Amino acid sequence: MSKQYHYDVIIIGAGAAGMTLALQLPENISIALIAKGDYQQCSTYYAQGGISAVLEQDDSFNLHSTDTQNAGSGICDEKTVKMVAESGPSVINWLADLGMPFTKDRQDVTASGFHLTREGGHSRRRVVHAADATGKAMQKTLQAHVAEKSNIDVIEHSIAIDLITRNKLCVGLYAYNIQNHQVNVFSAKKVVLATGGASKVYLYTSNPDGATGDGIAMAWRAGCRVANMEFIQFHPTCLFHPEAKSFLITEALRGEGAKLLLPNGKRFMQHFDERAELAPRDIVARAIDHEMKRLGTECVYLDISHKSRAFIKSHFPTIYEKCKQFDIDITRQPIPVVPAAHYTCGGVMIDLDGQTDIQNLYAIGEVSYSGLHGANRMASNSLLECMTFAIASARHITSTLDSTKKPGRLKNWDESLVTDSDEEVVVSHNWDELRHFMWDYVGIVRTNKRLERALNRTSLLKREINEYYGNFRVTPDLLELRNLVVVAELIIRSALARHESRGLHYTLDFPDTGVSAEITMLTPDKKPQKNTTKISLISS
Ligand code: FAD
Ligand code: SIN
Predict the structure, then answer these.
(1) Most-buried pick from 338, 348, 416, 418 (CB within 10 A)?
(2) From the CB of 387, is ligand 1 less than 6 Å away?
């Protein structure tokens, strides 16, 4: 039997954005923190390089903002960039006060006392980190504090299916419990999407399996606008090994002097950009893609072996150990690397308080489009964005909660017209097909012809998946696939709408960057729905 639950605030997602928000809200507010896996199944847990923040005398908010704008190819929102850059120091202090084990500066060089590393696009050393496993340290720190709060119920292994809206207000959601297969109804005064990105739509990705764009697809179905979905960031350096599942090799390696090499041992980045290995990610990934295609080689190499063994092992212990598992000793030999899908720069449109187009619905973190990243996110700006918008939306939610009406009882999930599937193979086949053609046709270098080919495939798949969804009981794979196909379509439609190359969107049909710098905004055809029960979605 489906159950009904009520909370003041429901946060979907327990990564950096979701947990920070939960901790920033006052303790007299009842909160549900819903996650589809456990605490480790989010991108935050895997973050390596760090969090950017202006902490030193030779740095400034203006410099951080200018670097962000330059990396974003001129289409970052000025107000957002300023707000995020200015929040850096307080975010780092808040985390340090919670006990986050940031790496200390052992040489007494920095005023802050933290070791600062550097990454692509940054004109200063401003990346605070916990060795090469910043996300794991952050996730553990936040998790420990969440566990102490009696007003926060953590509901793991529960997949949000769809938002419920009434008279253009968000009033709750349906969520599938993976353990007992029930779909429960959650009502709330405020609902927050903190569901992360969508890089799993590509065959090769640095992201964990759950990065299926659920929040973007749910918001889109409910009637929210999305922006800049064509800007999918490919991280230049993921470990190339059949068993490594695109394990990330942090950009901080390049920040500490690692060089990119061709198979013949020669450097090449200086031919593409004067900043060479420290150019923004779009440029480095495209250069690697170009060289791999030109030479017909499967990978390029990243070499840090000129640094001392002690330095490498203390700064990059996770990467050292991971590579060792594959018989690569990074203190002595170069690491084989390839680009892989890494970050969704676009997403659900929000304002500076994290509010979406639907009242009482917020989006924070990678699921959102806040205007920070423009056409290409600068390294280590994402965790900072998660925290900044979690804090901003906590403020807004707190000040408006009392005046928000508690929703009444919501309609139960209706399963009366569906049966168990006898064709799971359709779902797994469609997963594979979608991720393959997105990689082949909507990757680092695009053309209209390939994009149109991908759009045709998406339309066919969408029809098939929706039909399947209408006839059979939901499963986690089906729910994620249904979201992936929506996100794929949004990426392709946005890419087709941009008649220029800019940042991460590079197309052979329009190789130049245009003069008018605009964002790509898509608006759902339909108005926010009154009620998103399963039946009404199928017919829409
Ligand atoms: P996530 O941390 O991905 O959390 C998403 C949450 O939503 C999870 O709890 C998930 O279970 C839940 N969820 C999703 N869908 C549903 C659903 N339907 N129902 C219920 N729950 C759902 N950025 C930096 O700034 N610095 C770095 O050093 C850095 N390194 C990175 C390294 C790697 C390997 C990766 C993959 C990313 C890295 N990034 C880095 C990017 C950054 O980690 C992410 O953008 C950021 O952590 C996203 O946080 P989030 O809270 O928005 O989402
Ligand atoms: C990395 O450590 O290279 C990833 C940093 C990021 O994605 O911001």
Answers:
(1) 348
(2) no
CB burial string 431-461: b at 16+ within 10 A, e below: beebbebbbebbbbebeeebbebbbebbeeb
Rounded CA separation 319/314 (Å): 11
Q: pLDDT tier at 536 (50, 70, 90 boundaries)?
A: very low
Give the start-to-end residue ranges of the domains of the chain: 4-231+345-400, 237-341, 424-511
CA dist., res. 540 & res. 535, Å (int): 9
CATH number for the domain whose boundaries are 237-341: 3.90.700.10
For residue 172 and ligand 1, the question of a CB distance below 6 A is answered with no
- Out of 1.10.10.10, 3.40.630.30, 1.20.58.100, 1.20.120.80, the CATH code matching 424-511 is 1.20.58.100
Confidence (pLDDT) at 111: 93
Q: How far is the CA of 32 from the centre of ligand 1 (A)?
A: 18
CATH 3.50.50.60 fits domain 4-231+345-400: yes
pTM over 0.90: yes
pLDDT higher than 60, residue 192: yes
Identify residue 66 by its one-letter amino acid code. Answer: T
What average pLDDT does range 432-447 have in this prediction?
A: 97
- Whether 173 lines ligand 1, by a CB cut-off of 6 Å, is no
pLDDT at 381 over 90: yes
Distance 232 CA to ligand 1 centre (A): 15
Of the listed ligands, the closest to the CA of 196 is 1
Residues whose CB is less than 8 angstroms from the CB of residue 34 and which lie 6 or more positions away in sequence, other chains included: 10, 11, 12, 13, 14, 155, 158, 160, 175, 186
What's the rounded mean pLDDT across residues 417-433?
Answer: 89
State the distance from the centre of ligand 2 to the C-alpha of 129, rounded, in angstroms.
Answer: 11
**Is 370's C-beta closer than 6 angstroms to any atom of ligand 1?**
no
**Catalytic residue list:** 281
Which one of the ligands is nearest to 134 CA? 1
Q: Of the bound ligands, which one is closest to the alpha carbon of residue 316?
A: 2
Residue 89 in contact with ligand 1 by CB distance below 6 A: no
pLDDT score, position 39: 87
Q: What is the pLDDT of residues 28-40, one digit of tens each?
A: 999 999 999 998 9
* Whether the predicted pLDDT of 379 surpasses 60: yes
Q: Whose CA is nearest to atom 1 of ligand 2?
A: 250
User: For residue 117, what are the β-bridge partners?
Assistant: 127
Looking at ligand 1, which atom is closest to the CA of residue 364?
A: 52
Q: How far, in Å, is the centroid of ligand 2 from the Cα of 337?
A: 15
Q: Could you tell me which of 400, 342, 395 has the C-alpha nearest to residue 373? A: 342
